[in-house]
Amino acid sequence: MKIATTTELARWMAYVQAQPLPLDVSCAPWKATRSNEQNALLFGVLYPPIAEAMGYDVDDIHQYACGTFFGWVDRKVPKTPNNPAGLESVPFRSTTRDENGRRQVIDKKRFSEFVAHVERIAAKAGVFIPMEKVA
User: How far, in Å, CA of 23 to CA of 110, rounded?
Assistant: First the structure.
């Protein structure tokens, strides 16, 4: 929630003060996040042709892109015949969650860098991205 005026702040403070204790409240400076258009570009234009060309679904491509951009960490999972070590590599973070799984959407600048990274993944896979759909 964005509080932009002193009136909105006063209303929020009055609301909080009226709640029974104990409370779980957090507050942080507001930061602009990516737009719905940027999100639509990623999941509607960039990922689908990459997923089709590579034989994976869009969510797999998103996880791969996050891992190659933010880095990977190994986490323990149950051992299986195909995974006797019981380790799974997962992205350090995603575009919407930090390394602890808490919601933390990356800012517009970082998201633009991420989109450029996804475009490079597409190029390496020989995938043409129809950017005229963006306009």
Answer: 33
Instruction: Check pLDDT > 70 for residue 11.
Output: yes
What are the φ and ψ backbone dihedral angles of 120, each rounded to 5 degrees? -70, -40
Q: pTM, whole model, 2 decimals?
A: 0.73
pLDDT recorded at residue 27: 85
Determine the Cα–Cα distance for residues 135 and 128; give it in Å rounded to an integer: 16
Instruction: Give 41-60 as a DSSP string.
Output: IIIIIIHHHHHHHHT--HHH
* Residue 68 pLDDT greater than 90, yes or no: yes
